[in-house]
Amino acid sequence: MRAGPSQEEIRRHNLGVLLRHVHLGGPTSRAELTTRMGLNRSTIMALTADLTAAGLVREELPRETGRAGRPSLVVRPESSRVYVLAFDIGVDRLVAARVGLGGVILDRYEAARPRGVFVLPDVVGRLAGFTTRMLRATGPDSVCVGAGVAFSGGVRSSDGFVRFSPNLGVAGVPLREELERALGLGVPVAVGNDANLGALAEQARGVGVDCRDLIYLHGDVGVGGGVITGGQLLGGHGGYGGEVGHMVVNEGGRPCGCGSQGCLEAEVGERALLEAAGRFGTRIGRDAVRAVVDAADRGDIVAQDALARVGDWLGLGVANLVNIFNPEIVIFGGMLREIYLGAAAQVRSRVATDALRACRENLRLRTPLLGDDTTLVGAAELAFAQVLADPLDALARVGA
Amino acid sequence: MRAGPSQEEIRRHNLGVLLRHVHLGGPTSRAELTTRMGLNRSTIMALTADLTAAGLVREELPRETGRAGRPSLVVRPESSRVYVLAFDIGVDRLVAARVGLGGVILDRYEAARPRGVFVLPDVVGRLAGFTTRMLRATGPDSVCVGAGVAFSGGVRSSDGFVRFSPNLGVAGVPLREELERALGLGVPVAVGNDANLGALAEQARGVGVDCRDLIYLHGDVGVGGGVITGGQLLGGHGGYGGEVGHMVVNEGGRPCGCGSQGCLEAEVGERALLEAAGRFGTRIGRDAVRAVVDAADRGDIVAQDALARVGDWLGLGVANLVNIFNPEIVIFGGMLREIYLGAAAQVRSRVATDALRACRENLRLRTPLLGDDTTLVGAAELAFAQVLADPLDALARVGA
């Protein structure tokens, strides 16, 4: 139990809050900031002046307001100058992007990845290569304030060390350390679980804006979960919380990559769907999943049955999570987006049967607003976290 | 996103923090408070003076310190003067207590309750009757600062309205409103789910002190859950979160009072154990559960098998929760205490098989330090929440 903050801590906090407003909300008038932050005009002016001097925002006259009187200046994020690097390491692909303050994707590279092979130096090398190309396109006064990585597996929160990833086929690798070395930029690299970052992204800029109780389910080959409860990301003691894909829903069921049986991931993952549809081994990945959903849509009974079966287990898993978390929204991302769209009726029916009425009465089931960029955007938001928490300190740390 | 607090908000916050220190930690020297709160001596002295003037604490010379020099004054909670009322409404019993600041149980009444019958006016009337008797024993300057109720069911957080309680056989009753009316004390009554309050109690004063990620499982007839994640109680959108007893662990399994099948509560509740042991219908309640555990301990094979079966489902449920929450500690309270003590090997084995290594590596499985008072103590802590958040404001509200 700590005592309250000092005046200087409050000022730093307020600088971060103001910057977060324009980062998430876009250009905002001083008058609007005054209202939203509950501070007086002179304080807002002083905070804005500090952020402007630091090169994080700029003030401009607004376009025609249509109102009489002197218009309130608009505060804009310096999106093309201040940026982060965002990386997404998935089962089938690698993505690297340069994302400006305000969330603008300024530059982007993507490459397919072979499944089941994860050689740390190769992955890190490719991401560093993408970065070199992206940095060539930056202006002389641009500032990189951090880097974030979305990783499909369990990551130790303290040091970005990969503990497990059955679906990437890797465990026990110092991802953050190696990537920091390979980038050689002197900026902090933060690594997070992709589903956790997806949850943060959809809450910040997606379908879950303003939701304090949100679950994001991410299907890649397996199923990851990111849970926000009471406005906070569920991390757990070591940072491995949210592994809802390894909740056993079918005791004694299909074997799972984790060594257990009947995990949600084993019953609703890509392989479960493709096997149930009699299509395993021919094609894999998102296209194969989409093909099953399309076939079901065209009346293919085997595909319909497969989708219904998987949708039923998915619904049971969601019902359990609804009873446990009483969320406002559950978002189906990655490959689960296709499955949910194809089996929404089964999912909803199962939730209605197995979730307590009080826990589900205000529930919304949705797909991501950010589409396939959800986890990448989450990586960018993770990278921005420092500069939004304490803007001037974060700039000082990267030598800007 | 709000701006930082004002000076006056900080002072009020600090008064609450100081009071919380002595409430939870007992008599504490000013020097110790200075260190723990990170404030200077004069600030601590001013805060203590305010709390003393309000009659919430008093300062005393310490007993012999054995050190040279002037000893630091010790700040004590006014335990016999400032108190709350705590009520526990369980399936089989009603408990009412008067609990002094600092957590001292000053007075206590308990009565057995008939199962399956819940008549709101009767329950409220009995609790009000206990209260009248307890108030007769209070001194003229004593102050009641609140009342808290632990209830075995789902309670709407906004107004203490009972939404569901299959095991008490009641739903849709305005518990808080009726109890406030029956008590007629003009103090706020807060109602919470018993397992949620058990979690808070064990974190505040029990086996989970200093744990930020804790799960408390409470067995009554059914199974409730209280989850603290990142230091915060999981409430969910409407306050119904933590219903882990209605997580389906055995799809198509035993029917549950909620209408679903194979819920954790249906597979590990009192009835599941007694039926598996061939003892359902003869005796019920904690004694009957204890008798099965005792029989197993004496070598009764049917009882051993029953306990192993129930322990296995309990272990699967815990493994799921460990994957979802990555907790530091899981606490088995109420009737689950007996079951866990009788089937710890099965529970541990199942957790080892079905929970991810990273999620379980620092896990402790424990029974409550507060024993059968866990939920009652939680109700008291709920009642103290207001005075600990803003001591002077809370006193003003109760007219003290």
From TrEMBL, chains A, B:
<dbReference type="Pfam" id="PF00480">
    <property type="entry name" value="ROK"/>
</dbReference>
<dbReference type="InterPro" id="IPR036390">
    <property type="entry name" value="WH_DNA-bd_sf"/>
</dbReference>
<protein>
    <submittedName>
        <fullName>Sugar kinase</fullName>
    </submittedName>
</protein>
<dbReference type="GO" id="GO:0016301">
    <property type="term" value="F:kinase activity"/>
</dbReference>
<dbReference type="InterPro" id="IPR000600">
    <property type="entry name" value="ROK"/>
</dbReference>
<keyword id="KW-0808">Transferase</keyword>
<dbReference type="InterPro" id="IPR043129">
    <property type="entry name" value="ATPase_NBD"/>
</dbReference>
<comment type="similarity">
    <text>Belongs to the ROK (NagC/XylR) family.</text>
</comment>
<dbReference type="InterPro" id="IPR036388">
    <property type="entry name" value="WH-like_DNA-bd_sf"/>
</dbReference>
<keyword id="KW-0418">Kinase</keyword>
